[in-house]
Amino acid sequence: MIKLFRYLEKFKWLIFFTLLFMFVQAISELYLPTLMSEIVNNGMMKGDTVFIWKYGGYMLLVAGASSISSIIGAFLSSRTAVGFGTLLRDKVFTKVEGFSLNEFDKIGTASLITRTTNDITQIQTVLVMMMRFMIYAPIMCIGGIIMAYSKDKHLTLVLAFVLPLFVVTIALLAAKVVPLFKALQKKLDKVNQILRENLIGIRVIRAFNRVETERKRFYEANKDLTDTAIKVNKILAMMQPIMILLMNLTNITIIWVAAKRIDANKLQIGDMMAFIQYAMQILFSIIMVSIMFVMVPRAQASAERINEVLEIEPEIKDPKEPKTPKISKGHIEFRNVTFRYPGAESPALENISFEAKPGEVTAIIGGTGSGKSTILNLIMRFYDVESGSILIDGVDIRDMSQKELRSKIGYVPQTVVLFSGTIKDNIRYGKEDATDEEIMRAAEIAQATEFILNMKDGFDSLVSQGGTNLSGGQKQRLSIARALVKKPQIYMFDDSFSALDFKTDAKLRSELKKETSNSTVLIVAQRVATIMDADKIIVLDEGKIVGMGKHEELLRTCEVYREIVSSQLSEEEIA
Ligand SMILES: Nc1ncnc2c1ncn2[C@@H]1O[C@H](COP(=O)(O)OP(=O)(O)OP(=O)(O)O)[C@@H](O)[C@H]1O
């Protein structure tokens, strides 16, 4: 947690004033019982009304100061904690944005969400407590002991018995609660993970009639979380009556001992009353500190989880001095590229070398899992190659800034991702300052205009989160329009025409050809018809290139290609 507290620097003045006001509150509260004992001893016992009024007035002033300090302290500490929480969330979010896909896989999306929300809230809560109790509780405890001692030495002996008993009881309870608090956080992660999977996969869950199974899975994770939470709260609930019992026993003992001393004229009633109040203040401050000791480990567990995220050094970093290609055309070259996914035994791509030139369409075809998407992932630098290099316009992509690299590329991923907003917003995602004409033009080429205009509000129609109110083919076309509006040097289509009917597919590609005549176009496809007329077809099989050339050439020379073609086209089509 200390590591995270370095970010508190920004709030140092707020913290200073919180501590100052908490100090004023503690001192005022310590002074009140003494004033009260004065009123009892010198006012009430002697019937001196003027004295009572005078000291009563003092008491009012001191109590007022204490209340105002308490209010201001609470306000300032909350401001600090909320500000700190915001700052941390921002830091975690910014860090996560820079993660490569590897790091996402390592921590998991659900856990990243819990860490950014719940874990940071835990730290916020503890920070408020720390700021309020850090100064207040020790002053109340030590000051209380000193004041109590000044009222009566003998009575202080009662405290010498009670305080250790109090501390031991709290320590025993805390020892039980702390591990449970740590477990709570993990169980919350699990509930979040199942919830997320279910919300995203609801269609599949229903289609496979797995609603009951999923409900059971959620119920079990939820119950596990609830059981632990109940266990924690049972112990915490026990704490309160035990504390009250101990406090009352302390009260009774003090009164019993004090009564004898008052009888023997060794103690005044006012001093006994003040002593009782000091004893309560001491016990309360111990409770406060112990609550902090229980809460801190929980926040500590959260802090560790946040630190883990903040300390991950993204594997993919920008070079210190990024290079820019002298001539920028979008020429791609793979030189002996081998790549293995983290933890995988065999490489997903092995010794891949090819060129994709501007003005040409380069297609990649191959069976499922042959490494087609991986090639595109590597060009986008979602992962770094294991050996070999990828050059764009002669510059290794690891020597370029990621921003520059990605600004050259219009990428249409295999799984379409749309954001909540209008159709226009989604297309404009490709180019922030795109004009309405540019957006319409992109939609036109992507063959999306017709269905967009058929929607109630045309280009201003709302796309729901994840694009659930659109069909697969409609989503694909919007995703293509989003890449087109960017007018990049390199287009990468990852199986992006698979959900289109043949007619739309052919129309779209012929329009696309006109639009992308000067760009480098990479098309990953399963359908031979989609890539037959490409300038270069790369045939992949188990991560290796087994053929490269034009359609007719490959038909003659490449066995794998022939197999793919004959499984899809009729004899006449092949001829
Ligand atoms: N994130 C990942 N972590 C580990 N292995 C992966 C990951 N993504 C893909 N792979 C593996 O890498 C290999 C190549 O996958 P890739 O997605 O490139 O295939 P593909 O040819 O695009 O297949 P498809 O046509 O089915 O999309 C596969 O064996 C796959 O299991």
From TrEMBL:
Residues 332-567 form the ABC transporter domain. It is a multi-pass membrane protein. The chain crosses the membrane at residues 12-32, 52-76, 133-150, 156-178, 235-258, 278-296. GO terms for cellular component: plasma membrane. The keyword Glycoprotein does not apply. InterPro entries: AAA+_ATPase (IPR003593), ABC1_TM_dom (IPR011527), ABC1_TM_sf (IPR036640), ABC_transporter-like_ATP-bd (IPR003439), ABC_transporter-like_CS (IPR017871), P-loop_NTPase (IPR027417), Type_1_exporter (IPR039421). This is ATP-binding cassette, subfamily B. It comes from Caloramator fervidus.
